[in-house]
Design brief:
Strand order of the largest sheet: 2-1-3-4-5
Number of domains: 1
CATH architecture: 3-Layer(aba) Sandwich
Order of helices and strands: EHEHEHEHEHH
Low-confidence stretches: none
Largest sheet: 5 strands, parallel
Number of strands: 5
Strand content: 15-25%
CATH superfamily: NAD(P)-binding Rossmann-like Domain
CATH class: Alpha Beta
Length: 128
């Protein structure tokens, strides 16, 4: 008996940056990239149990919210921290997780660096 491959939707304009690595590391998983909203229509019959959602200017959150109606979807992970587009009409019928806090340390370090630069006049010194 042949095991059925798990289907994963990847909604992200920049999916090509990491798609081959995902496929190499997880050969038993069928990753289906969706780079733009029109791809949702084209792949409407794809049997996905999991989806990764990364909102961009070219692929806005309103389009990602269409996953709420995807049949058989068990889990959606949002690449950022915002997920209000999935819960606007009540709880979705799938597990919903997000990446809140993933970049917290890097953002804090960047902010601290900017504050030090402003306080010490680094910006003005660079202009001179």
């Amino acid at each position: 008996m042949v095991a059925k491959r798990m289907g994963v939707l990847v909604l992200h304009e920049g999916v090509d940056q990491y798609l081959e690595e995902l496929r190499r590391r997880f050969p038993a998983v069928e990753f289906q990239p969706i780079r733009q909203p029109a791809g949702l229509e084209a792949l409407s019959g794809f049997p996905a149990a999991i989806a990764y959602s990364c909102v961009t200017d070219g692929f806005p959150r309103t389009e990602h919210a269409r996953l709420r109606d995807w049949p058989g979807l068990d889990w959606v992970h949002v690449g950022g921290s915002g997920f209000d587009h999935f819960v606007a009409d009540g709880p979705p019928g799938f597990l919903l997780t997000n990446g809140a806090g993933v970049l917290a340390q890097e953002l804090a370090q960047t902010l601290l660096g900017a504050l030090i630069a402003l306080n010490r006049g680094f910006v003005g010194a660079l202009r001179d």
